[in-house]
Amino acid sequence: MKALILAAGGGNNMAPFSSTRPKSMLHVAGRPILYRSLQMLKESGFNDVICVMGPLGKSITDYFGSGQNIGMGISYVQQKKQAGIGDAILAAKGKFTPGEHFLLVYADVVTDDNIVRNALQIFGLGGKPTAAICLPAESGSFGNVYLDNTMNITKIVEKPQDKNLGNYVLAGIYVLPYTFFGLLEKNRADMAKALAELIKREGLRAAMWEKSWIDIGYPWDILAANKMVMDTWTHAHVHHSVQIRDAKIKGPVIIEEDAEIRSGSIIEGPAFIGRGTYIGNNVLVRKYSSLGPKCVIGFGVEMKNCVLTGGARVGRLSFIGESIIGEGVDVGSGIVTINNNMDGTTVKVRINKKAIDSNMAKLGAFVGDHCRLGGGHTISPGSIIEPETVVPHHFTYPKRGK
Amino acid sequence: MCGISGIVSHSNISRRLLDSIQNLEYRGYDSCGMAVINSHGPIVRKNVGHVAEVAEKELFTSLDGHVGIAHTRWATHGGVTPVNAHPHTSCDGSIAVVHNGIISNYGELRAKLMKKGHRFASETDTEVIPHLIEEFRKGGLPLEAAFVAALKELDGSFAVAMVSAEEPWCIFCGKHESPLIIGLGRNENYLGSDFNAFIEYTKNAVVMDDGEYAIISNESYSVKRMSNGEPVGKQVMPIEWDAEMSKKGGFPHYMLKEIHEQPQTVLKALAIDEKSIINLARRLIESRRSFLTGVGTTFYVAQLGQYYLASEAGISAPAISADEFLEGAAFGQEDFILAVSQSGETYDTLRVLREAKRRKTRTAAMVNVIGSTMARLVDDVVMQGSGPEICVISTKAALAQMIILIRTAIEAGVITKRITAAEKKQKIKQLESLPEIISGFLNEHSGFVNTLAQRTAHHHNWLYLGRGRYYPIALEAALKVKEVAYLHTEGMPAGFLKHGTIALIDDNLKSLVFLPSEKEEELYKMTMSSIEEIKARGGSVTAFHSSKTLQKSKLLDDQLMLPVSGPLVAPLVSLVASQLYSYFAAVTLGKNVDKPRALAKSVTVA
């Protein structure tokens, strides 16, 4: 069986990252989401995968190349235009041969265990087309899957209008027959319609997933996914090349090669310090922080529940909490990400000109790739800073206009 | 559901054939048997009981042969007797057949064959198959053609496997609507109702489709179409699976599987012959005193029955827990005891029934396992036909028993003239609407139940409250949570609360209230007043209800909206919701759902 992984999706609601990287290249616990998907495939016995990428595909090929660094063979297919999932699957049709089943994986879902293996086991029970399903915390924005008592899917209602529906949803992992390409062609690449026809013709078995599952739809979902993955860590791993002087390390902390941690710093796990990252003196890295690779953290910085994609610099005496910092961002000295509202309400974020409630009591800032933030700023909760923005230093003296 | 298996090898197979049906035992376990070919033809051994018992009694492993078929039975046609166990043979004993499924036209086939001089040993539908094959063989068809011709005569569902003296090196098999899978090994091949039959020997399988038959020898197999005898190219599937997962049919746990099977279980309980229900109703009416009994879940089932019998038929039939029965009830020759048990082996309930026998009290039982001690002990038995229930926590079997008791109450109401023919029709219609309501609920609300469980399962102390018919539901719901999620939950009548227990209400004690529909005005209002009482003392209330007005009010701390249904079945919808809630609570808390600590499926000890 071959595996097809869909990594093209940019996500309309993923500001400020949607213009520089696909969702699959957002980092969670030190690695792109796509890396985790590939790892699951490898553990399930797939060595060769076909990866569909979109206009921002370069970020994928730059990171993974032909896959030799992770012990896999990746062949890429370019989706011409962003025309939905069905279109992305059809773009790869030429890589498959009639009569075989293929595994389909969406690279924007994160799970805390191998959901692919689970789906393959269910497929193995009868060789019928299979779709993974799960019960998300809130199913409002997903479809509703109807099951019979033998775990066959009888119906899928896409994005139900009825708020009183809350059931299993499609989890983005499928085992499908080659004939599915034909069903997609017949239904103008409409995934929902093609699945409905598949259910009628061959049936579709449900592979029920009861562990955690997060579909990355909004930028704050990255923080939830980051926490979910780190919560599965039970041990600390410190590479032998790491230099640590008079620093304290507690709990499951992963520190990769050539990282350096200076004296007086405290790292509270679960946390991730990437390859070549430098942590200066008296830095406090608290739970669920993912830093690196190649970040430089200045003196006296406090970090908590945050993701630094890589190559970021954080100037001295800053605070980064509940925030996502893109690639190569320069955070000036003394910057504070404020992460709550004084009135105790949950933080709202302006995305596509709409204020969307994140339902999170604490949420900091989302800083796009290659931004440069001058020193001395306090950033309001839920701020989105578009990529490559340059924010000048903030001075309180001399007073402006005097 | 039954399980069939077969092995064709070049070495002795009896041990492995035994293992194979043992692995299928979850599909049915009231009797079993096997046929192994030796130089004289098929040798058949079969009997009543669990596979291990029968194997010992019938010395399965002493059989010597390279080709054989086996069967484990869950009776549908014919009682649980040694002759009714499979395999069944032809008159001359040269053909042995095992079968899973139901042959709907077996009556006429049997009559026809008997006219032609065939002698039948059993009451089963299956036995027509070997005789049919024999008949076609006598008519001059070669064995393969005779096998196919026989299968074509059958209406209904079947998976059939045959061994014969004539071609002793192979197994013939065919299927329509019942599952059949071929396993491909090295120099030997296998056959099974599912993978579990040969899971230990091979991971390569061929799944047969409807209308196909196959001939399997130790070195090859061929699959052909019954319609024209043409070979079918089948894909060999290398399978990555584990045995438990396969038995669970893809569900993560038996408990969830059995919860999802409930629409079917209800249908089966509704299909039970009206006569036996009326018979129960008559006994309840005509006896001097009637009692219901059970223990654990079945006691709560009995209690629910008590409420329905009182309200529908005006019969007073108190439910008494079987472990307390002998001390708490006075009964004699003119009285009647109706017992409820899934396994039919429950020690406490059997003790009551044995004592009743001694005192010549009339007895009846509602049982799921055919051939169980209780089914044999009582004067009248109603088989609930819910299929094997594997999870230690009873869900579907309990629901089916409730349906049967409600039907009994309705029939009793008709006899006592409390219910008119038109009312009965309306009530039966309500019951018939239940499968769809349940499957709708499972398919559209599981997410809400899961979310509620995740939010609330970490609270350790609960009161489960309900009034009227919702009181036994509260008790059973509380027991489910205790059994599977190990939370301390106390079921109580909502009206009882203010007479003492209300003193416990504080931050650490949560309440879950089962509300009737607003249309049952009186009951609804009274239950609401209990909620007000708890709220007035600063308690927290979660409710299972179907009221739109209540949904909008700020009274409740948490809630689960149920689909609107008729007053007769609404308590059962609440029950299903609470089963699912206990399941998700256990999953949330990481408990062993199917095998809770310290519990066994049937409690056969004092």
Structure description:
The complex is a heterodimer of chains A (402) and B (606). With 402 residues, chain A is α/β, with parallel strands linked by helices. Chain A is built from seven helices and 38 strands. In chain A, a hairpin with a 2-residue loop joins strand 2 (27-28) and strand 3. Chain A is globular, with a radius of gyration of 22 Å. The mean pLDDT of chain A is 92. In chain B, strand 20, helix 16 and strand 21 (488-493) form a beta-alpha-beta unit. The longest helix of chain B has 36 residues, at 421-456.
Mean pLDDT of chain B: 91
Strand arrangement, major sheet of chain A: 14-17-20-23-26-29-34-37
Strand residue percentage of chain B: 15-25%
What is the CATH class designation of the largest domain in chain B? Alpha Beta
Low-confidence stretches of chain B: none
Whole-number radius of gyration of chain B? Answer: 27 Å
What number of domains of chain B? 3
Overall number of structural domains of chain A: 2
Q: What would you say about this model in short?
A:
The complex is a heterodimer of chains A (402) and B (606). With 402 residues, chain A is an alpha/beta fold. Chain A binds chain B through residues 45, 99, 117, 120-122, 124-127, 135-139, 144-151, 164-169, 205-208, 210, and chain B through 195, 207, 235, 237, 239-242, 245-246, 249-252, 256-257, 260-261, 263-264, 439, 442-448, 450-451, 454, 561, 587.
Annotate the secondary structure layout.
The complex is a heterodimer of chains A (402) and B (606).
Chain A lengths: L1 E5 L20 E2 L2 E2 H11 L4 E6 L4 H7 L8 E6 L5 H8 L9 E6 L2 E3 L3 H12 L3 E5 L9 E4 L5 E5 L11 E9 L1 H8 L4 H11 L3 E5 L3 E3 L5 H10 L6 E2 L4 E2 L3 E3 L2 E3 L4 E2 L4 E3 L2 E3 L4 E2 L4 E2 L3 E3 L4 E2 L4 E3 L1 E5 L2 E2 L4 E3 L2 E4 L2 E2 L4 E2 L10 E4 L2 E4 L8 E2 L4 E2 L4 E2 L4 E2 L4 E2 L11
Parallel strand pairs in A: 1-4, 1-6, 4-5, 8-12, 14-17, 15-18, 16-19, 17-20, 18-21, 19-22, 20-23, 21-24, 22-25, 23-26, 24-27, 25-28, 26-29, 27-30, 29-34, 30-35, 31-36, 34-37, 35-38
Antiparallel strand pairs in A: 2-3, 6-11, 7-13, 8-11, 9-10, 32-33
Chain B lengths: L2 E6 L5 H10 L7 E8 L2 E8 L2 H7 L9 E7 L14 E2 L5 E9 L2 H10 L12 H11 L4 H11 L2 E9 L6 E6 L4 E4 L4 E4 L11 E4 L4 E5 L4 E5 L11 E2 L4 H5 L6 H7 L1 H9 L3 H13 L3 E5 L2 H17 L5 E3 H7 L7 E6 L5 H12 L3 E6 L5 H5 L2 E4 L12 H20 L5 H36 L4 E6 L3 H16 L2 E6 L16 E5 L6 H16 L3 E6 L2 H5 L5 E4 L8 H19 L18
Parallel strand pairs in B: 15-16, 15-17, 17-18, 18-19, 20-21, 20-22, 22-23, 23-24
Antiparallel strand pairs in B: 1-4, 1-10, 2-3, 2-4, 5-6, 6-7, 7-8, 8-12, 9-10, 9-11, 11-14, 12-13
Helix pairs in contact in B: 3-4, 4-5, 8-14, 8-15, 9-14, 10-14, 10-16, 11-12, 14-15, 15-19, 16-19
